[in-house]
Structures are given as C-alpha cells and as structure tokens.
C-alpha cells in the first residue's frame, strides 16, 4: 500500500467513507499474519490521580478541582490477585506524576508483583521520571513503560502543555526507556486542540522511525475544569483510520483499542479491533476509585466488577471473531 505523505494526507482528509474499509482490510491482514485473530488483555490499575503536572487537556491536572486518591500498595496487590485469577498476565500501573510513589516504593511494589506473579508482565505508565529512576524500575523487574509522546510537533506540544514541561525532555524519556530495555509505548490524542494534518504526519513519521512496541491513540475528549473544556472531541472515524495506518506503517505494533474510543462510540473498541488494534485494557481498579480517575468527561467505566466487564468484553470480541488468550502478549520480534 502506498503511504507517501501525500497519500496519507488524502487518507486523513477525504470524506470518502470507503477508505476506512480499505485501510482496515490491509491492517487486519498484517495483524492476523503476525498475531492471529487474538486480542491481548492488560489489567489497568489506576494507582493515583495526584499529579504535579498541569497538562491543559487533562482532567487530573494539578489545577483541577477533582477529589484526589491514591491506592496503597496492598490494594494494588489485591487488584493484581483479582486480575491474575481472571486470566490477566499483564498489569498496567497507571497514574499521575505523584511524588508519593518514590522509586523505593515503586521498586518494592514491582518486585512484589513479579515475585507473586512471575508469569506476568508489569507495565508502568507514570509519566516522566529521570533516567536513574527508570533504570531502578527496570532493575526491579518492570517490563514495559507507556509514555505517550502526545505530539511530535514542538509548537503543538507547547500549546498542549505548560511552559514547565518540555518536548525535549519527553523525547529524552522515551529514548532512555528504550535504551534501558523497556518495551516502550508512545502515542497521542486524535483531535487535540491545535492538531493539524501536518502535526499528525509528524506523529506518523515519529512512529515509523522510533517504532515503539506499543502505540496508544484515542480521541481527545474535553474534560471539565480544564482550559480545553469547551473544545470539541476528536473524530472516531479519523481515530480508526489512524489505527489502521499505524498498523500498516508498523505491522508488529501492539495497538490498544482505547477506552476513549469506547467512551465516544458504543462499539468503538470493536471497530478499533476491526481497524487493526489488538489490545484492550479493562479496568482492574477498585470500584470506588474508578470514577475519580477522570482524565476526561464520561470516561467509560461500567461500574461492573472486573470479572463482569471482562466477560462483556470477551463476548464482544467473540462476536466479531477474536479470542482473548491468557498470555502476556509481548511484542513479537522479527
Ligand atoms: N482526552 C483524551 N485523552 C486524554 N489523555 C489525557 N487527557 C485526555 C483527554 N482529555 C490521554 C493523554 C495521556 C493519557 C494518559 O491519556 O494522551 O497521555
């Protein structure tokens, strides 16, 4: 498939509804060849919504008036126990940049998880840290790290973030994580304020070049109480086209059907899988804290127990012809 930048520009801007069918067919073919008709599950544990950062789009930014919580290590272990019994073999510890979670506490936690569940991968998604900190976490046994680059365009980055945050530091973090042996996840929001076809082309070029093991993309959704609260949400259609394009550009990538897509469209995650996604991340956080991890409005959170939402998801995936194996679902190296 020709994916020159002119062609990408056309694929991202045309109103022709058949482009998604064509992109999806090619994306599915490539994914099925490498991973089969399998969707990997990751147990998402939202460990804290405290954050020292003030990203303009985010509902748990420092200035947001939301109620704050953090889980105690023993609560996090309990989430893993529940998840492991349900068949999860990857646990994703996600949170704001919360200084309470020092390297020491996190390393102890990662060590505990790896000791109790040696067959499982631990993914961290805790924002920017120093190289030394990443090195210690890796040493403690963490396998993967998710840190969306948010945008590969410097000026666009400055529009989405306060002056205290730097594009260069974000990119440095990704380079350090790679260098330390993590499987790395990058990614961006679709339809974030200030995003253009040109910034998207830069995101795609970055992905094609850096080749992150994972790429998380989902539509931007406004969050109350943030500077972008009145901005329009991103397009589901364009998100799906981008998922397919990313699969075609980087066939081995682990590509989640994100919660943000499921939030904007009732079958958003199924459509994402049909566009080439192969990961879903059901929530293992305790029921009462899920609503507090409100990075955007109306975040999909069934209110049902982990077991129930997993069954729901499994039925949805079976209905479109995919299984969800009990497996770590690592990046397949050539
Ligand atoms: N809409 C969609 N995604 C968001 N994120 C943060 N705020 C929003 C929002 N309002 C994404 C960012 C971040 C990830 C954890 O969630 O890309 O990296």
From the structure above, extract its key features.
11% strand, binds 5'-deoxyadenosine, TIM Barrel, single chain, two-stranded parallel sheet, globular, alpha/beta, 334 residues, 8 strands, 6-stranded parallel β-sheet
Tell me about this structure:
- This protein is α/β, with parallel strands linked by helices and 334 residues long.
- The protein has helices at residues 5-13, 18-35, 73-86, 103-116, 131-139, 154-160, 167-179, 197-210, 236-249, 259-264, 268-274, 287-290, 306-319, and strands at 40-41, 43-48, 90-95, 121-125, 144-146, 183-190, 214-219, 279-280.
- The strands form 2 sheets. A 6-stranded parallel sheet has the order 2-3-4-5-6-7. Strands 1-8 form a two-stranded parallel sheet.
- Strand 2 (43-48), helix 3 and strand 3 (90-95) form a beta-alpha-beta unit.
- Helix 2 packs across helix 9, helix 3 packs parallel to helix 4 (103-116) and helix 4 packs parallel to helix 5 (131-139).
- The structure holds 5'-deoxyadenosine (5AD).
- Residues 57-58, 148, 150, 189, 218, 220-221, 223, 260, 295-296 line the site of 5'-deoxyadenosine.
């Amino acid at each position: 498939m020709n994916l020159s930048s002119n062609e990408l520009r056309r694929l991202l801007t045309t109103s022709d509804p058949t482009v998604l069918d064509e992109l999806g067919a090619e994306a599915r073919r490539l994914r099925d060849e490498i991973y089969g008709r399998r969707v990997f599950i990751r147990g998402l544990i939202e460990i804290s919504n405290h954050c020292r950062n003030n990203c303009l789009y985010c509902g748990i930014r420092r200035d947001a008036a939301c109620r704050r919580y953090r889980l105690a290590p023993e609560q996090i272990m309990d989430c893993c126990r529940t998840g492991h019994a349900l068949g999860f073999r990857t646990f994703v510890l996600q949170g704001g940049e919360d200084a309470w979670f020092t390297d020491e506490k996190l390393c102890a936690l990662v060590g505990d998880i790896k000791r109790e569940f040696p067959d499982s991968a631990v993914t961290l998604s805790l924002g920017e840290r120093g190289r030394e900190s990443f090195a210690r976490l890796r040493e403690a046994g963490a396998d993967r790290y998710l840190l969306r680059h948010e945008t590969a365009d410097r000026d666009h980055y400055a529009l989405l973030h306060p002056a205290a945050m730097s594009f260069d530091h974000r990119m440095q973090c990704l380079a350090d994580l790679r260098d330390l042996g993590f499987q790395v996840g990058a990614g961006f929001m679709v339809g974030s304020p200030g995003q253009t076809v040109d910034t998207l082309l830069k995101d795609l070029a970055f992905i094609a070049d850096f080749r992150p093991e994972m790429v998380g993309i989902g539509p931007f959704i406004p969050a109350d109480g943030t500077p972008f609260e009145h901005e329009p949400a991103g397009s589901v259609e364009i998100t799906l086209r981008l998922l397919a394009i990313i699969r075609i550009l980087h066939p081995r990538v682990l590509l989640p059907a994100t919660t943000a897509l499921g939030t904007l469209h009732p079958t958003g995650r199924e459509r994402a899988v049909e566009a080439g996604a192969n990961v879903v991340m059901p929530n293992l956080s305790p029921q009462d804290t899920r609503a507090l991890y409100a990075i955007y409005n109306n975040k999909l959170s069934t209110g049902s127990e982990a077991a129930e939402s997993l069954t729901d998801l499994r039925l949805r995936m079976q209905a479109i012809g995919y299984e969800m194996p009990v497996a770590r679902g690592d990046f397949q190296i050539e």
